[in-house]
């Protein structure tokens, strides 16, 4: 209730009261209209604006989940437990002393102990074929595969391919049925696609994380010999290695293998080996390749250089991309197909080439015995070449020999260089020479290491194993002067 008091005008009196009363009635009538305009009009205005983004509109949309996809794939994802024998020196308070380590490390008493580790894997076939990372089962003396439903199976190594960091295991389910997944080409992915990573991080048990494809064809890494990876921000941690990277239709597009991390945990930068590489080792195992010898892959016999912006300009390319042929072996199938030094490889089997590393990956996925279609650029014109996928020739014969004698190379194993040996050590080599293949543990890093190439001994050019034996068989009071190619650098060493 509002009480109003007025000052009475001695001249106008009652007329003033009537006027004020009439005005007050008008104000009271307008108040509800003002309230409606203040509170209702903005609401109507807001309802007239279009919604920004894709907001769930129904109860079904609010309940969208990855659960159906996880139920489809997770039963085929396994935990892998391994045991390996580790040899290490007996603890000594002097091990922290650099001088002590330099002179006495190789003479310390050693001890053996069992070390347990864990990883992940995924079943590819109902008959018990499991894929994981090679580093997960490296040097394992015992491997146990545990399914998501709790069943455990002892596993045997079927094929280890260190070059791709992949391994195949075999388990015997007997009469039991095993769930399995389907491989899907990673080429079907696009940057931004949703993916799931499934594995056993830190041994906590089966874990699912989600993310997107951050990049395709990452090659600026040094994880395996092919350096061609799917990058994802789905959380991957230690223990996830060997687990699947899953597309939204349930197809496995990659095998999670590494993370970039400063702390040891996930920073949202994980890498997976593309499914195309998995397909090659499955085919190799099916064709009879087994054990630790790896997979025989096509050999190009050529060195490639990534095309930079400067090279692209000189070749008349609109943008950098592709690889320039800088060197070829005389037996190179690329050379025999018609390629020349200076040609630019711009595509392989219809896939545009981004850099030199991609050619290595593309050829690694071509079965030996088939042909690859190369598109090259020469003097501004493109040409098509059919390059046979051939295994690296093991010629000339390796003639692997253990050196004996009163010299510092006593016990070192050497062999003649040939394409097959060069592939084994992942080196780009001269067409002839001698390579160090094995070095006794006590001698490592002192004079030579596996993969070093002997170029000269006491001024004698080394072209084959017999040259080394002859040079070392001639005593020299001044010692032996060695010229060695090691990690791309030429080193001169004098041994007395």
Give your account of this protein's structure.
With 496 residues, the protein is α+β, with helices and mostly antiparallel strands. The chain has 4 domains: 73-171, Trypsin-like serine proteases (Thrombin, subunit H, Beta Barrel), CATH 2.40.10.10; 186-286, Thrombin, subunit H (Beta Barrel), CATH 2.40.10; 302-388, Pdz3 Domain; 401-495, PDZ domain (Pdz3 Domain), CATH 2.30.42.10. Helices cover 20% and strands 32% of the residues. The chain is built from 10 helices and 25 strands. The radius of gyration is 35 Å and the shape is globular. The model is unreliable at 1-24 and 27-53 (pLDDT under 50).
Would you spell out the secondary-structure blueprint of this structure?
Elements lengths: L13 H35 L10 H4 L4 H7 L3 E13 L8 H7 L5 E16 L3 E5 L6 E7 L5 E10 L4 E6 L22 E6 L7 E12 L10 E4 L11 E3 L5 E8 L10 E5 H12 L15 E5 L2 H7 L7 E6 L4 H4 L7 E5 L2 E2 L3 H9 L6 E8 L2 E8 L12 E2 L10 E4 L2 H7 L8 E5 L14 E5 L2 E2 L3 H8 L7 E7 L2 E7 L1
Antiparallel strand pairs: 1-2, 1-4, 2-3, 3-6, 4-5, 5-6, 7-8, 7-10, 8-9, 9-12, 10-11, 11-12, 13-14, 14-15, 15-16, 15-17, 17-18, 19-20, 20-21, 21-22, 22-23, 22-24, 24-25
């Amino acid at each position: 209730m509002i009480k109003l008091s007025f000052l009475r005008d001695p001249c106008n009196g009652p007329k003033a009261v009537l006027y004020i009363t009439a005005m007050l009635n008008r104000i009271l009538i307008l108040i509800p209209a003002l309230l409606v305009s203040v509170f209702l009009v903005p609401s109507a205005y807001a309802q007239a604006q279009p919604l920004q983004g894709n907001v769930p509109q129904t109860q079904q949309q609010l309940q969208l989940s990855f659960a159906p996809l996880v139920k489809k794939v997770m039963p085929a994802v396994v935990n892998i437990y391994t045991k390996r024998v580790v040899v290490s020196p007996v603890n000594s308070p002097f091990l922290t002393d650099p001088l002590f380590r330099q002179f006495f490390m190789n003479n310390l008493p050693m001890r053996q102990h069992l070390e347990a580790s864990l990883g992940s894997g995924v079943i590819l076939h109902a008959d018990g074929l499991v894929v994981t990372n090679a580093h997960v089962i490296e040097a394992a003396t015992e491997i146990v595969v545990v399914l998501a439903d709790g069943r455990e199976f002892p596993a045997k190594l079927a094929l280890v391919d260190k070059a791709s960091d992949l391994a195949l295991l075999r388990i015997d389910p007997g009469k039991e049925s095993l769930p399995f997944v389907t491989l899907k080409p990673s080429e079907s992915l696009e940057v931004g696609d949703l993916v799931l990573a499934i594995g056993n991080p830190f041994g906590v048990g089966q874990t699912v994380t989600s993310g997107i494809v951050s990049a395709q064809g990452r090659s600026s890494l040094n994880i395996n010999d092919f350096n061609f990876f799917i990058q994802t921000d789905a959380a991957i941690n230690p223990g996830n290695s060997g687990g699947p990277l899953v597309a939204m239709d349930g197809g496995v597009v990659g095998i999670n293998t590494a993370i970039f991390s400063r702390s040891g945990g996930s920073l949202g930068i994980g890498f997976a080996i593309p499914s195309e590489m998995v397909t090659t080792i499955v085919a190799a195992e099916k064709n009879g390749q087994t054990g630790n010898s790896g997979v025989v892959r096509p050999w190009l016999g050529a060195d490639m250089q990534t095309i930079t912006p400067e090279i692209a300009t000189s070749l008349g390319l609109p943008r950098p991309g592709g690889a320039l042929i800088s060197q070829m072996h005389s037996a190179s199938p690329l050379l025999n197909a018609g390629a020349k030094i200076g040609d630019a490889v711009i595509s392989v089997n219809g896939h545009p080439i981004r850099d030199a590393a991609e050619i290595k990956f593309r050829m690694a996925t071509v079965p030996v015995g088939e042909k690859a279609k190369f598109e090259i650029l020469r003097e501004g014109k493109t040409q098509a070449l059919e390059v046979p996928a051939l295994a690296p020739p093991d010629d000339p014969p390796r003639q692997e020999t253990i050196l004996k004698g009163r010299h510092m190379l006593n016990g070192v194993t050497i062999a003649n260089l040939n394409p097959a040996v060069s592939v084994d050590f992942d080196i780009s080599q001269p067409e002839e020479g001698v390579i160090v293949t094995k070095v006794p543990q006590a001698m490592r890093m002192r004079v030579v290491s596996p993969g070093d190439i002997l170029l000269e001994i006491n001024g004698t050019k080394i072209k084959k194993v017999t040259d080394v034996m002859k040079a070392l068989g001639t005593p020299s009071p001044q010692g032996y002067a060695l010229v060695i190619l090691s990690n791309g650098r030429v080193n001169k060493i004098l041994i007395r």
